[in-house]
Each structure stands twice: as C-alpha cells, then as structure tokens.
TrEMBL record:
PANTHER family: 3-HYDROXYISOBUTYRATE DEHYDROGENASE, MITOCHONDRIAL, 3-HYDROXYISOBUTYRATE DEHYDROGENASE-RELATED. It comes from the Bacteria. InterPro entries: 3-OH-isobutyrate_DH-rel_CS, 6-PGluconate_DH-like_C_sf, 6PGD_dom2, 6PGDH_NADP-bd, HIBADH, HIBADH-like_NADP-bd, HIBADH-related, NAD(P)-bd_dom_sf. The lineage of its organism: Bacteria, Pseudomonadati, Pseudomonadota, Betaproteobacteria, Burkholderiales. Residues 3-161 form the 6-phosphogluconate dehydrogenase NADP-binding domain. Pfam families: NAD_binding_11 (PF14833), NAD_binding_2 (PF03446). This is 3-hydroxyisobutyrate dehydrogenase. The active site is at K170. Its EC number is 1.1.1.31. Residues 164-291 form the 3-hydroxyisobutyrate dehydrogenase-like NAD-binding domain. GO terms for molecular function: 3-hydroxyisobutyrate dehydrogenase activity; NAD binding; NADP binding. Belongs to the HIBADH-related family. GO terms for biological process: L-valine catabolic process.
Length: 296
C-alpha cells in the first residue's frame, strides 16, 4: 500500500481521506482545523504538524483546497513542491483555474515530480460512499499511477487531456449544475405558488423531459428528499460561495477563449445575489429561497 499525504480535510477532503485509510493505505493528514485532523486520526490516519511534515517521505501527495490562491500559495509560494521527494506523484483534487493547474504542474515537473489535476464530481454523498467521479488532466502515465488510489475514492475516472484539462471539464460541468439547480428551483417555486405539492411536482419532473440531477438526487425543496441538504437546513453539501467561485472560473475561462456563456453569467449573478443576502455558507440548493422567500 502507498504512503499518502492528504492535505485539506473539508466536507469533501475528509471522507476522501477516510476511504484511503479504510483501504489500508498509510495516510498522513494535515488541515488548519484541528477537529478535522482529530477525526481522521481516530480512524487510523497519522496527524502531521504542518503541510511540510505531512509530505515528508510520501509517495503520493493529495490536496483538496478551496481555490487557486490556496493551491498556488501552498505549492509555489510556500514551496511545498520543494519538500516532496523526487519521483513522487502529486494529485490536486481542488477545483481551480486551468492556468493555475498548468502553472503548478510545470513547476512540479521541473522538480522531478509527476502531477495531475483531478477535480471531482459527486458531492459529499459521493465522497462518503467512495463513488466520486474524477476528471483528470495530465499525462496518461501519471493517470495510471494515480488510478489505484483514485479508485479507492471514486467510481468513475475520466482522462480529459493534458494538464489543466481536468479543470476545464469540471468548470463546464459545474456551470451546467448551477444553471440546472437555479432552473429547477424556479420551476418548483412556480408550481408551489400555483398550489402544487412540491414532492408530486418533483416526481412528475423526474419522470418527464425536465428531469435532471437535482430532481432525481438533490432536490432543493425541503422535505422532498430526506437525505438532501434541503431537508437539513441546507447544511453541509456544496456551499453557495463555492458554486459562485466555480461560476467565476467559468466566466474567466470564457473571457480567455472568447466563448459566450449567457446562462452561466445569469446563474453567477443569481448566486452572487443569494450569497450577498447572507446565504454564502449554505448548500447551493438553497438558491430556491430566492424564488420562494415567502414559503412556510
């Protein structure tokens, strides 16, 4: 089994690291939040006092961080790459700007390290169940090195292309997800305002041409799906501010490539409005509250 350093134990990172521990890997963990580290050490991981200490001797380094600035800050500004042993594999599962991924990957290569960007899809439920989808950018050889580890955390692994390609594909996916969730919320609110039961309407849509991931697995209306964040006060899950970040990445990418994303920009404005209203830390499905602020 591999010796793995895992840095970043948030809502996604913690269950991912836990699945590696359960698979029998020697996992050293680090996070700024001591409580998150404590839960992993109780499960069998070993705690590190710093990111530098975590990567010492590691064969594989995995990071799951919030944004580009955190990834570049850790690997480049703090020079974590210089602390990782030559020949090791670096897997960054954060969702960040493609150019940031390419920049860090080039620096890793110059240090004698292989690196892949491997952002994920599947939400916290997929992270816990080990059924995530990994969208990988990097060389085929690096992906094959990463595959045995990724398979312990996910069910689907796609090779999108060279460094940064995983991020491009993830950004496209999350832009569509944001649009779908906003549209689903709007449709449900319209139905309820006209006297329909939200569960009945959701069941109808799920078996009709409007069906999508939100209606089938992540309904935004409270009480429709017991295990969805909407039925838990929109706690946990994928935060509004994280969705807003990803929609911002889509906007940046569109500017660079001169692509038109009118629906993506509309969704970004909606989530920005929602975040500015004090909902930034709630699950992104809480966008339904923009349309149904007067519901009971």
């Amino acid at each position: 089994m591999s010796s793995i350093a895992f840095i970043g134990l948030g809502n996604m990172g913690a269950p991912m690291a836990l699945n590696l521990v359960k698979a029998g890997h020697q996992v050293v963990v680090y996070d700024l939040v001591a409580e998150a580290v404590g839960k992993l050490t109780e499960a069998g991981a070993r705690a590190a006092s710093s990111a530098d200490a975590a990567v010492e001797g590691a064969e594989i380094v995995i990071t799951m961080l919030p944004a580009s600035k955190h990834v570049e800050g850790l690997y480049l500004e703090r020079d974590l790459l210089g602390k990782i042993k030559t020949g090791a594999l670096v897997i960054d599962c954060s969702t960040i700007a493609p150019d940031a991924s390419r920049k860090v990957a080039a620096a890793a290569l110059a240090r004698g390290l292989e690196m892949v960007d491997a952002p994920v899809s599947g939400g916290t439920g997929g992270a816990v169940a080990g059924t995530l989808t990994f969208i990988v950018g990097g060389t085929s050889a690096a992906l094959e090195r990463a595959r045995p580890v990724l398979e312990k955390m996910g069910k689907n692994i796609f090779h999108a292309g060279e460094s940064g390609a995983g991020q491009v594909a993830k950004i496209c996916n999350n832009m569509l997800l944001g649009i779908l969730m906003a549209g689903t919320s709007e449709a449900l609110a319209l139905g309820v305002s006209n006297g329909l039961d939200p569960k009945v309407l959701s069941d109808i849509i799920a078996k009709s041409s409007g069906r999508n991931w939100a209606t089938e697995l992540y309904n935004p209306w409270p009480g429709v799906m017991e295990h969805a964040p909407a039925s838990k006060g929109y706690a946990g899950g994928f935060g509004v501010d994280l969705m807003l970040k990803d929609l911002g990445l889509a906007a940046e990418s569109a500017l660079v490539s001169r692509a038109s994303i009118p629906l993506g920009e509309l969704a970004r404005n909606l989530y920005s409005l929602h975040s500015n209203g004090g909902s930034g830390k709630l699950d992104f499905s809480s966008i339904v509250n923009l349309y149904a602020s007067d519901r009971e």
